């Protein structure tokens, strides 16, 4: 019979407050606070819970993983709320700023949980467990699955509108186009089962190339040939 680990909820309460602090638009963690959270994480993920079954060592790590996954889904679900009713450029500016901030915060979280989480994740991966990721990969998968599923169409429409405005000679901030495109390229790199083709960028291609031929194929070709920012740059680096 499984014996419940004592203190997991109590330790998680403070760890969760720390995770929320990492992702908040506030002052960064102090070194002392980071070390406190690091100790909580290590204690949680090194608490051995003895019970019958093959997953004995990893029960507490999985509990932390579930808490983090739930937090990320709730956090990402609200990232784009402020985009309602704003202009196209403001929508893309909000998206790119939130994306860059989210990546930085997720790297901090990944470092916080990295040691035992990585060992556990690798074992799960080798055992063929699906939909289990390292912390940073989990964050990006959550962004893709939660935010892009709800707002991806609006974001892509905004990018295509800016491309068209640019080609018509209207002043646009092309860094916003680059920022969105490169975010989709980044999200293409976190697929659980990568394509055999190292240059296949599934998330990017699904979002852009499946729609561009119908609306902006000629414009896109101009960009790819050097008429503007280069949408193929990540394929050649």
From TrEMBL:
Task: Name all Cullin N-terminal domain ranges.
Answer: 12-212
Q: Which InterPro entries match?
A: Cullin, Cullin_N, Cullin_repeat-like_dom_sf
User: A single GO molecular function, which one?
Assistant: ubiquitin protein ligase binding
Record protein name field: Cullin N-terminal domain-containing protein
Species in which this protein is naturally found: Haemaphysalis longicornis
In the record, biological process GO terms are: ubiquitin-dependent protein catabolic process
Q: Which family does it belong to?
A: Belongs to the cullin family.
Tell me any Pfam family this protein matches.
Cullin
Q: Which Gene3D superfamilies match?
A: Cullin Repeats
